[in-house]
Amino acid sequence: MTLDQRNSPKLLLGITGGLVAIIVLFLAYQWFFATSNETLPEHEGASLTAPVKPAPPTTAEPQAAANSDPETIQLVDEKILKAPVSENASLAKEEVAKLDDIQNQLHEQESMLKAQHTDADELIALKQEQIKLLEAQLAQKQSL
Length: 144
Fold this sequence. Notes:
mainly alpha
């Protein structure tokens, strides 16, 4: 490259533009994955718009189950159930939507855990059967 080609404004602009594009893509990638990971624990932290409002009546069911079984983890705090509903309709709708989303996540988690539980029971039964078969084979080999 000649000295004129190295000092060309087009070349410098192209290199600068390429670096800026790479940085922008990297930041967009980080932002996308950072926001997708933060959506789940949103209800645990303090809300920026308003305090957490009571959930629909279906949320009281896990609470009743938690009170009946001492080993069950309490999913709903009593303060949330007794907190006043916001007078601002848009904030109330937003809170209801958040709580509905949380309720849907809990239902999905419950169904996944039930499926895992049935799978584990099936595996245990199969392992017990396998152990019985191996014991029978071992007894047969020892008798020979």
